[in-house]
């Protein structure tokens, strides 16, 4: 049996989720009569987890949510369409990006409502970080997301280092 490090690079399309559909009902609303953002965030996390586990072939956990951008509201009766893909893979971590579109199914009009970027870590059988296969972007858009993921990682690691230094070297958890 080969290890993840020995496996060939995988493309984003091999692990991606193209169109997970969620129909919005009144119980999904917040006090402003728009879709509750926490419901969308939980759904994004679950879908991104599927992508991370498909890419790595392992159990994964959410390590961070770097960005969640709410671009426009979704309302009762909208159909939410979630699409997610692995943007980049490092040693044991992967950035997964998710885009959410709200569609008015009656008029066939759609709008971009959320973009989110999360980092997942693959785990071995003992719960320790495990090596993941590299990512091989194929399209120009995938190569752009790959490069942008590197920038987000640099920002995340630099921020963690600044916090650690400010705390006198103490861990940044909690």
TrEMBL record:
It holds the Pfam family 4HBT. One of its GO terms (cellular component) is cytosol. GO terms for biological process: acyl-CoA metabolic process. This is Acyl-CoA thioester hydrolase. Residues 14-126 form the HotDog ACOT-type domain. Belongs to the acyl coenzyme A hydrolase family. InterPro entries: Cytosol_ACT, HOTDOG_ACOT, HotDog_dom_sf, Thioestr_dom. GO terms for molecular function: long-chain fatty acyl-CoA hydrolase activity. It comes from the Bacteria. PROSITE patterns: HOTDOG_ACOT (PS51770). Keywords: Hydrolase. Signal peptide: none annotated. It comes from Salinisphaera orenii YIM 95161.
